[in-house]
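Predict the 3D structure for this chain.
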Amino acid sequence: MKTSALLFLVGLLAGFIAGVEYGRRQAANLTDELPGNLVGALMDTIGGRVRTTREKANMAEMKSTLRNLWVLQEGHLADHSTYGSTVEGIGMTWLALGVTIELSEVGRDGYRGTARHADLPNVACYIEIGSAWQGADGTYEGLPWCDDRRR
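Done. Predicted structure below.
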């Protein structure tokens, strides 16, 4: 019984390896049949929409920093009846590496925070609260969103 189970597993493993190798050959044949210029053109076409893992991480870092800004601003509003006009003034003394925050349209009824990352010069992320919220398509008050100026 043990021998037959072992032989079954060996056969299963051999079949799996053969299947993987067959898949590799098929993929190699497919790429050999496509002209290099076509593959390059396709990559250029979708290149503006494809993001690397690092870009996604940097954008997530900017959004996270804006959410932290929101928490501190709400605390400042509760204590002083107005939003803080500087990042230092609300106690945000730490920022993620490479991230900068700018505050604009600050007042008693709202503010706009802009986050930028040193590694993403063409991308800015925003959070808009109260009177600073412009109601752009796809944005919501208090929810960080990013604008990619490569489009």
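The chain is about 45% helix and 20% strand.
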